[in-house]
Specification:
mainly beta; Jelly Rolls; 1 helix; globular
Length: 258
Amino acid sequence: MATKLYTMGNMRSAYAQCTPTPANLYPAAHLVDSNVNTWCKLASAGTLSAVIDLGRAETVDAIICWIHNYGNSFSATTAIDRYYSDNGTSWTFVSGGVSIRDTATPLRIATTGLGSSHRYWKVNIPPVSPVPEVAMVACCREFTIEQGYAWPETNGRTAYNVYSQGKYIRPLYKTVTKDLTRTFLLTAPTDIEAARNAFDDSGGQCRPLVLWESSTQADALLARFASDTWIDRQATHQFWKASIQFKGIPHADTGDNY
């Protein structure tokens, strides 16, 4: 199974606008701040239309949304619609959106019909109940490593509690992160180039990425490179070893708010 890295270098200058105006304290800027512990939402049920201006035309291979309250069984399985534009006014619909409802993961990864270059991208979050809390809309590049196995593989899990410091100390939310080390044994020049390009597009550990090592959306993880240094070494004739450490990004799990 191939490993796919969805990187967010396209989002380095991104600006978001929403229609209608989101609820107080939940502005459109939360969609592009790289922080999945903040989110954008409407005050009441309705279609949230979010326009992402990348600042210039960029190739987009996937549009990824993070739904904070994914654990709720939304009232419908309506797809998140996607559009692109070169001028911000005339929009082209992209078929093949993913369902708003998936109680197994906050990630919604849509790749069908993408791969073209445009400046403006739009997603329509459907009018379901409860009101979706959208923490991220990312226009991503896709890099595929065909030798998707890891050797060796190390996984860790760390849980945090975040507390308020008011009159009564109480937990605000619980966060969870994963530490992952992958050592890829690569032979094809395209695989070596893909891994390195993913590292460069992420700016090392500067920007988050989505690591997807299966065909099941629930297995995808929000992470970042753990280092700003890239190292690959020739292990033997025509085989290169790239040891990559990812750090899972802590996030508030749905249902853990108090």
